[in-house]
Write a structure and sequence with these properties.
The complex is a heterodimer of chains A (299) and B (388).
Chain A (H helix, E strand, L loop, with lengths): L4 H29 L1 H8 L6 H20 L4 H23 L5 H26 L8 E7 L3 H9 L11 E6 L4 E6 L8 E10 L3 E6 L5 E11 L6 E11 L8 H25 L18 H7 L1
Chain B lengths: L1 E7 L2 E6 L11 E10 L1 H7 L10 E2 L3 E9 L11 E4 L2 E2 L5 H4 L13 H8 L5 E2 L16 E4 L7 E2 L6 H4 L5 H10 L8 E5 L3 H12 L4 E6 L2 H9 L3 E4 L5 H8 L7 E4 L9 H12 L8 H9 L5 E4 L12 H6 L3 E4 L4 H13 L11 E4 L3 H9 L8 E4 L1
The chains are: A alpha+beta (299), B alpha/beta (388).
Chain lengths: 299, 388
């Protein structure tokens, strides 16, 4: 069953806030105790010790404040401001000739990642009463609603488009067993049931209670005007129960949305061209045909 | 096999890499017989296009012989001689059906990156950064060609590589740029940049009935080629382009302007320095000097056609001039597939011989040196063709 929105939010935002607070304190302590080492690690000159210590003090101050006032919007935004400051320092350092740009870029990426989390946490506080449990994505596919409906009902077809689903085994007309590719060595499994279906128009599914994951969603097939195929629109939620409260939909939603968007593109490619575009396994003057950037774009 | 790989800004190397193999049912493997360096490859060489990765095989202008086919390619056979368009297109999506092949919705596996950078993605392209799919390019002995049942055009054995190789990109690119001008009898067309695309745009403008073409560049050898095609020439280091264009058109301005320069325009004076500084500080990704000039020069109600490549963001664009003076902007990566058959026919009939701009015929092993020569325009380099 999907969590009710309010339930989901109170847990997740408290957990995220406390996590961000402690992260802040940890990083701050590191910057104060070992300023040169930290500077080198992120790609800044080892001489920026005073700067590192100042940044450390800032981190600890916002961290403590955040843990003491978990519901405060201001301290959450203070962290976002801090992230922007860090990014600008890294950006300036990258302009110095001979700077370790690769390392700086990695640090920048890390800061941006935490920044996104900070921003999302700050935004969550503001909007906590209008939380949404689901994500939506839509794509135009040059096939008729009835072709798409039939393809979707043959659930064994779906792993061709769903990059993180290893297998789907049909149990009966409405139930099927889903298994993800191993993520960090663990495959998640659940039983999914089609709880309502309208031939050639769409269907709604839900995972069985007590599974590894808690997912529910609806797909709708709407013909587009002017012989332009069909709008395939999915609205769904996905949460991993075994990770406990930290994996409520607030945390998983951005990932779900990303995956859903990619997977709908793959579905479109498969149905319109018979194959999914790839460069995995192509020639290159390096070890692998595709790179981390491709992984990022496609995962 | 040997392949020319990107390793960083102004660092391309001849690497030994594994031979390509069929990865999808509609793939083909082509043994490259001729491949060229494109002006847009210099944007990659100069580090101006984001999302390049060490080890990327470069090259999107190539032709050769089919040596292997995926099971779903029915229209080609092993041994066919083909020219391959630089955009990778599925042939059946919304855009391909409307012959906007470079906007194919199904060929860029990294569309998410391009969505982020540009709002929506283009098609996949050979050897042109990971924004357009990260596909290995054709400056190599062999290349994998996806959707081989759609792109490659067969050419007979009676016609040499040099005459048909440029169907892969620059000839259709110059042609599409001129076509976009909607040329009417009596029209004057101004072309910024007399590199290969500019030269083909000039030739195409005449083919399409232009009365007069005015070509703008600073390299004498390039201006000479433009003059041979029948264009009047302006060296922007010697004269004021705006003044000369006004003078030549009774004050009205050219009916259409073509920016065949793109993101690395060389400016002089204050404006040139301004853009160099902003680009170096990453405050703008592209230097739109030719574009600004073309916008201001164009006559009221005229057309600005932009085949020159831009990557990201530009600054100080006189958009008020464009809006208030009813100027139409036409641009886009070339829909090469659309032009293959008509242009092959023009080449076969002798209406156009694209080989006139080749200045250097080299081996693939000369590739890294050729990039530097082309970039710095040493040895009057206009176009490099390499035979693996």
């Amino acid at each position: 069953m999907p969590h009710s929105p309010s339930h989901t939010y109170s847990h997740s935002s408290a957990a995220t806030t406390s996590y961000l607070g402690w992260l802040s304190i940890g990083i701050g302590a590191l910057e104060i105790i070992a300023p040169s080492t930290t500077a080198r690690a992120v790609g800044l000159p080892a001489t920026s010790r005073t700067l590192m210590r100042a940044l450390g003090l800032r981190e600890i101050a916002t961290g403590v404040a955040l843990i003491r006032n978990p519901s405060s919007k201001n301290w959450a935004w203070a962290r976002v401001a801090g992230d922007i400051m860090d990014l600008s320092i890294l950006g300036k350092a990258a302009l110095v000739p001979g700077a370790p740009r690769g390392r700086l870029a990695l640090s920048g990426l890390a800061v941006a990642g935490v920044g996104a989390l900070d921003a999302s946490s700050a935004l969550t506080k503001r909007k906590s009463t209008q939380a949404s449990d689901t994500v939506r994505e839509t794509v135009a596919i040059d096939r008729s609603p009835s072709e798409l409906y039939s393809f979707w009902r043959e659930v064994e077809n779906l792993p061709q488009a769903l990059s993180h689903i290893e297998s789907i085994v049909r149990i009966d007309e409405t139930r099927s067993r889903w298994r993800t590719v191993p993520l960090g060595g663990v495959s998640l499994e659940w039983e999914s049931e089609i709880i309502s279906a309208e031939r050639d128009h769409g269907l709604t599914w839900r995972s069985q209670e007590g599974s590894d994951v808690d997912t529910t969603g609806t797909v709708r097939f709407t013909p587009l005007t002017g012989d332009r195929g069909t709008a395939v629109a999915v609205e769904m939620s996905f949460a991993v129960n075994m990770l406990g409260e930290s994996s409520t939909t607030t945390v998983t939603n951005p990932i779900t949305k990303r995956l859903l968007r990619r997977d709908l593109k793959r579905l479109k490619q498969k149905l319109e061209t018979g194959e999914v575009a790839t460069t995995d396994g192509q020639s290159a003057g390096r070890r692998t045909g595709s790179t981390w950037l491709d992984e990022l774009a496609r995962a | 096999m040997k392949a020319i790989c990107w390793h960083g800004t102004r660092d391309v190397r001849l690497d030994h890499v594994p031979d390509p193999k069929i990865l999808n049912p509609r793939d083909a493997i082509v043994k490259v017989t001729s491949t060229a360096i494109c002006g847009s490859d210099l944007h990659l060489y100069g580090g101006f296009v984001p999302s390049m990765e060490k080890g990327d095989i470069l090259g999107h202008e190539f032709m050769g012989e089919v040596i292997d086919l995926g099971r779903d390619v029915k229209n080609l056979k092993v041994g066919d001689r083909v020219v391959v368009p630089f955009p990778i297109s599925c042939g059946s999506c919304f855009f391909c059906e409307r012959t906007m092949f470079s906007l194919c919705e199904n060929s860029n596996p990294n569309s998410a990156l391009a969505d982020g950078m540009w709002g929506h993605s283009t098609c996949g392209m050979f050897g042109y950064s990971h924004l357009t799919g990260g596909y290995a390019g054709g400056q190599a002995e062999y290349v994998r060609v996806p959707f081989a049942d759609v792109g490659p055009i067969k050419v007979g054995n009676g016609i040499e590589d040099d005459k048909v190789l440029f169907l892969s990109d620059i000839l259709p690119t110059g042609f599409m740029a001129a076509e976009a001008c909607g040329i009417q009898p009596g029209d004057t067309i101004a072309v910024w940049g007399c590199g290969p695309v500019g030269l083909f745009a000039i030739a195409s403008a005449f083919l399409l009935g232009a009365e007069r073409v005015i070509a703008i560049d600073r390299f004498p050898e390039r201006l000479q080629l433009a003059q041979k095609l029948g264009a009047q020439i302006l060296n922007y280091e010697e004269v004021s382009v705006q003044e000369q264009l006004r003078e030549a058109t009774a004050g009205r301005g050219p009916d259409a302007c073509i920016d065949a320069v793109g993101m690395e325009a060389h400016g002089h004076g204050i404006v040139g320095m301004y853009d160099r500084v902003k680009q170096a500080l990453m405050l703008e990704s592209d230097r739109p000097i030719a574009l600004r000039e073309a916008m201001m020069a164009c006559r009221n109600g005229g057309t600005l056609s932009v085949p020159g490549v831009y990557g990201g963001f530009i600054d100080k664009v006189p958009f008020g001039s464009v809006m208030n003076r009813s100027i139409t902007i036409k641009t886009g990566q070339t829909h090469v597939h659309r032009y293959l058959h008509p242009l092959l026919k023009k080449v076969e009939d002798g209406d156009i011989d694209p080989s006139f701009l080749i200045t250097h015929k080299l081996k693939l092993t000369d590739g890294p040196a050729a990039y530097e020569m082309f970039r710095s325009k040493q040895d009057q380099c206009v176009k490099v063709v390499m035979n693996p």
